[in-house]
Amino acid sequence: MQSRPTLLFICSGNIFRSMSAEYSLKAQAGASEKVIVRSAGLKPPPHGIVDFVRDHLAGKGIDISGHHPTQLEPAMLDEVALPIAMGLEHQQVIERDFGRRLPLFSEVAYGTIEPLRDVWEVVPDWRNNEPASAKYGCSVIDYIHDGMPGLLERMDGFMGRDSKTP
User: Fold this and answer.
1) Which residues contact 130 (CB under 8 A, 6 or more apart)?
2) Tens of pLDDT along 103-118?
3) How many CB atoms lie within 10 A of CB 69?
4) Measured distance CA(151)–CA(133) in Å, rounded
């Protein structure tokens, strides 16, 4: 049996975007036979997983109750076949702090370069505007979830393509 490559989704706190990608990919039919999936955040999460994230993923049949946020360690980047930055800011921080240029989620999943922004970047009053935060956040989860078939199709072309920058 051929060994399965490991994918690592990376975002800020590992409680929204990268976590949604990890669990969405794990939920895709046949994905577990092709890859091992993990996720991590650049820094400790500022808060726990918000209800709309948990509820929206549950509505897709995805249980995240066993998730514990993981902080990215440098060695993790060397242990995976395909590390993926969820947003432009993650890509930039990883290049600056770790000297690695990673592909973006949108690049691997959809073949485009699009920012995958966090709720606070789109909804300025996100703490006090739960309906707008949930609406935007759920649209991000849908985008991530819907991109998994494309990611599975395109991932081989990205394996080993992340580069160390001088």
Assistant:
1) 52
2) 999 999 999 998 899 9
3) 17
4) 26
